[in-house]
Write a structure and sequence with these properties.
Keywords: Signal. This is Asparagine synthetase B. The longest helix has 17 residues. This protein is of the alpha/beta class and 419 residues long. Helix 2 runs parallel beside helix 13 and helix 8 packs across helix 9. It folds into two domains: 107 residues, Alpha-Beta Plaits (2-Layer Sandwich), CATH 3.30.70.790; 298 residues, Rossmann fold. The protein is built from 13 helices and 14 strands.
């Protein structure tokens, strides 16, 4: 009997010694393809396996259970990895748990179901989120106004707002593109869709969509938006019941003195902004810093804030990167005026040259939202009709990593934020 017990103990110790994990490092030196590493992590979660996200350890590394299948997937996708022993994994986790280290191990529990709000058909611009999801091989589904108004968002954990104008002003493209065939067709399609859904104006229909998205977030959803989808979303909510569109957009004049009727209490992130009245100005409001900034491309960088991983794991997750200094990039909405951001919204990335906010995050009801200024992290001045970015040329892009941090965020077992 004693021999049997000793044998069982020896077998157990032996198994513990030989048990292993896969460590996917995310620092500069250790990882050849940061973007596809997120895809492998998501793929592992889809297999109903848990992953530990090691915040601030080697650039926000991932600790996965070891298997030949996962190793093979890393190799196929070109993702750098190490197989480490159980004792080595314990050593890393104990070090991370030390109060002296600004690190934390966050458990990722299940692959979030992802939706991208985007119109059907080919658009004359590209969307950074759909490009990086495709490159990382993370599956997503598309929804648009009809699905949103029919409460399809309840099926998803994460929603991205594609390059969009929720104000009914067709992206303020009027001056430059009103004679372009794609602009004329887009306007016709938007009017037809609004009519089919029972609305007399596109602005009214877009407001209804924005309110459904608002309710989705309040109910516990996660919304991520870039470029013009950020400020136009808040403007639409703030202008409920007010006509801010000029005749070329909706066929009748705007309300007199509409600036004084804006209700900032209805917005997610912004306050005290002034709307741009002219239809010939490619701008929605004073929220955007594009026309105010005087920063040369060569020195245009924004800095990621440093948060306490143990006390504030949420912003720490969203800021994981292999560098704290990220290349800037332009867009219709390039960045956000600091003074027009609500006090309960967290600035996670800023350009220190002029204090503009680039990357912000907030809580709304039971849900979360992140706004990221600019259009394409690897195309400084992406214009309508420009060729899309080939991410094979940018597999370690820190700007695109921020998008993928947000994609994985809903998978995390949350702790209450302290600040």
């Amino acid at each position: 009997m004693k021999k049997t017990i000793v044998l069982i103990v020896l077998c157990f110790v032996s198994l513990q010694a030989f048990a292993s994990y896969i460590l996917i490092p995310m620092d500069v030196e250790g990882q050849d393809n940061h973007l596809k590493a997120y895809g492998v992590t998501y793929w592992t979660l889809e297999k109903q396996l848990k992953v530990k996200w090691l915040l601030n350890y080697k650039g926000g590394s991932f600790l996965l259970p070891d298997s030949e299948e996962i190793q093979r997937e890393c190799q196929i996708r070109g993702v750098s990895f190490e197989v480490i022993s159980n004792s080595k994994a314990e050593e890393i986790l104990n070090m991370i748990a030390s109060p002296s280290q600004n690190m934390e191990a966050v458990v990722l529990e299940k692959a979030p179901k992802i939706a991208v709000y985007t119109p059907k058909g080919l658009q004359p611009w590209d969307d950074a989120v759909t490009m990086v999801l495709t490159y990382a091989e993370i599956p997503y589904e598309t929804v648009y106004d009809e699905e949103v108004l029919n409460d399809a968002l309840l099926l998803y954990d994460w929603l991205h707002l594609h390059h969009e104008d929720f104000t009914g002003q067709y992206g303020k493209f009027y001056r430059a593109y009103r004679s372009a065939s794609w602009y004329i067709q887009e306007k016709k399609d938007a009017e037809a869709l609004a009519a089919s859904l029972g609305y007399s104006k596109v602005s009214e229909e877009k407001l209804a969509v924005a309110k459904k998205i608002r309710d989705y977030v309040i109910g516990g959803g996660f919304m991520f938006a870039m470029c013009s989808a950020t400020d136009s979303f808040d403007i639409a909510l703030s202008a409920e019941g007010v006509d801010i569109c000029e005749p070329m957009f909706d066929g009748d004049g705007s309300d007199a003195g509409y600036q004084n009727k804006i209700d900032y209490s209805k917005t997610f992130a912004f306050k005290d902004f002034l709307l741009e009245r002219s239809p010939n100005v490619y701008e929605f409001s004073s929220i955007d810093m594009t026309r105010k900034r005087r920063i040369p491309m060569t020195t245009d960088y924004f800095t990621l804030m440093d948060f306490s991983a143990k006390w504030d794991p949420i912003p720490s997750m969203l800021c994981q990167n292999h560098t704290a200094l990220v290349k800037g990039f332009m867009g219709q909405t390039t960045s956000f005026t600091r003074e027009e951001i609500k006090s309960n919204v967290l600035v996670m990335g800023e350009n220190k040259t002029n204090g503009e906010a680039k990357y912000i995050h907030g809580i709304k009801g039971k849900g979360f939202f992140t706004f990221y200024g600019g259009h394409d992290p690897e195309d400084y001045t992406h214009k309508v009709g420009d060729p899309k970015t080939e991410l094979d040329l940018h597999p370690t892009s820190p700007g695109y990593r921020l998008i993928l941090n947000n994609v994985l965020f809903p998978a995390a077992k949350k702790k209450k934020q302290k600040t």
